[in-house]
Design goal:
With 161 residues, the protein is an alpha/beta fold. The protein has seven helices and four strands; from the N terminus they run αβαβαααβαβα. Helix 3 runs antiparallel to helix 4.
Length: 161
């Protein structure tokens, strides 16, 4: 939950409440939108790459509590734990009012297709496509962070002017 962090920051004299932004990379591309569903004081936010369902990329590394429920055949508990922890439901995304920039890259090994899915669930969000041709492909664009940062900061600048 980011609310205590935002409370702390906004209590400081050197923080402009109208320009508070949030940036999340990799798995935080799931946690940022989830936090934005409940914390509305950010001027803008970036999900680099966006995700709506963490369990899709974790199918081989299921957390212990989930694996235990699965092995015991406790479908109700398994589904409940999975839904609570790793899925960003439309009921949450519909609450997001913060402008959200969502990065989608060619060849994302973990969240392929989920950035566009997230963008479709968040009204007014910006889906930013990064391609192999420009050298900004794969999860979190490891070979061209410069283009990511340039586009992200340009977009943030437009949001908080």
């Amino acid at each position: 939950m980011l609310t205590p962090v935002v409370d702390f920051l906004l209590a400081r004299d050197d923080v402009d409440a109208d320009k508070l932004t949030l940036y999340g990379v990799s798995q935080a591309g799931y946690w940022v939108p989830r936090a934005l569903a409940f914390e509305h004081r950010f001027a803008a936010a970036v999900a680099d790459g966006g995700a709506v369902d963490m369990a899709r990329s974790w199918h081989q590394n299921i957390p212990h509590v989930l694996l235990s429920a699965y092995l015991k055949g406790d479908k109700v508990r398994f589904d409940k734990e999975l839904e609570l922890a790793f899925h960003l439901p439309g009921t949450h995304t519909g609450k997001i009012t913060t402008p959200l920039y969502i990065v989608e890259t060619d060849g994302d090994q973990f969240f392929a297709g989920q950035s566009a899915e997230l963008a479709a669930l968040v009204p007014g969000s910006t889906l930013a496509r990064f391609t192999q041709e420009e050298g900004a492909s794969y999860h979190c664009q490891p070979l061209d962070r410069e283009i990511t940062e340039q586009r992200m900061f340009d977009w943030m600048d437009e949001q908080i002017r």
